[in-house]
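Q: Hi! First time doing this. I have a protein sequence and I read that you can turn it into a structure. Is that right? Here it is:
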Amino acid sequence: MYSYELTERGKIIIAIIIVILVFVLPSVILAINAWSNTAPPIDDPPRSEAPGTNDTPAISNGPLPDGSGFDPIDPPEVDDNEQDPYDPPEEQDDPPYEEPVEPVEPLEPEESPEFGFVNLNRARGTMQFTFSPEHQVALDEDTISALADFITSPRNTARAHISVETPSLSTEDSAIFRSAITDALTQHGVNANSLVFNANSASAYEGAFEVILSFQQPASGK
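A: Yes, that's right. Below is the predicted 3D structure, encoded as structure tokens:
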């Protein structure tokens, strides 16, 4: 039987093999296991570039050549006097409260009484006017002025007297009217004794009545 004796070189080789089996081989196994469990990386999508250029395209505000995109609208000009819609208006103090004033209805004008000068005929020596004891204590100015022409009638002779015709008056109205007509004719120089008051057949009056003045000649021999 043969016997072998390890040389120094053989011992070194055996030691190297043992180190490989103890340390290197497990590391290789673990590395292979980890590599197989790692997910493959996601490939980036291919990029197409125009041949011969690597520059970044300039950004344009206009529409794209194919009609897509949008055309930016210039902001509207804002007038200094107009309120900016994005600027809230300043708060203003409320005006003091005022109670509403009710409109005052105008008063209806009172109907003026029907009195005053009506008619004058100098040739015939007659004159007409109206008188209202409820609103008058004297004749109105127009009637007094007309009396100045009435007494210049040719019918006003030295012996003539003035007939004053009225409806039948109450005692109170008669006193007011006689005082008014006497004072007016006296202003024109007519003697109160030449006035003759007569009641005609006129219907009853309401507020105002018609007066007829006329020159009457006395009967012959009187």
